[in-house]
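Please check both lines for our workbook:

___
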Amino acid sequence: MSSYPEDSLPVPATAAGREGLAAILARPRTAVVAVDFDGTLAPIVADPEQARAHPDAVPALAELAPRIGSVAVVTGRPAGVAVRYGGFAGVPGLDRLLVLGHYGAERWDARTGEVRAAPEHPGVAAVRAELPGVLERAGAWPGTWIEEKGRAVAVHTRRATDPQAAFDALVDPLADLATRHGLVVEPGRMVLELRPPGMDKGEALLDHVRATGAGAVLYAGDDLGDLPAFAAVEKLRAEGVPGLLVCSGSDEVSTLAARADLTLPGPAAVVGFLASLARVLPR
């Protein structure tokens, strides 16, 4: 497994990040480590259904989880899908792993293997029915496609001839559609997701950190949808809970890197960092 030397973890660029890392190293049993899935544990691919966790991700998490207070995967995907694509079920060492899917609306607990879920917002079904017509009226963009996410619907433009032009052309029509049905639009890396308001990674992370009484928190993400989780860590810092913000960097999203304490070049480096963190912590 590729990782940093055991005595040479990368140093966060900010004082707040260094404080967060120091708190995790000093009191790991009170810490929460939370990570996004796509783009953070799993490389971004043209077809989201083909996304899989980096080969070293599960071994790294299995090394880290017994040494830390809580490890959680926080994702916009349905929890069960993230579990399958991540290969998280039945792994020794991951018996306390949580997967907070659909931005916290679903929760998979490794101890039970069950998914608990909140009721679905009625606007999702209405948007699902109208979306093909809205896309047709917005113009023909070959390669643009709809991803069914259960509690949300996403429109991807990465396969389009001109992905950015297709993305830009769809922003306003999809925002209008979402507003009519009480939903919001979350932009990402060549994707626009329509989902219920108040369903975001920040709320999911805050709820989990407060439920565990964590004394420190690390969050790693890669996309605009991770900004609420970054804001949650900043809020926790203001309340006296040290935190470390890690960006899985790419050329497509610079906003997250500007807010991060530590930027790593993609999922392989994030996984290597988690493996190295595990190795410097006591069992």
Remarks:
- Residues 163-180 form the longest helix (18 residues).
- The radius of gyration is 19 Å.
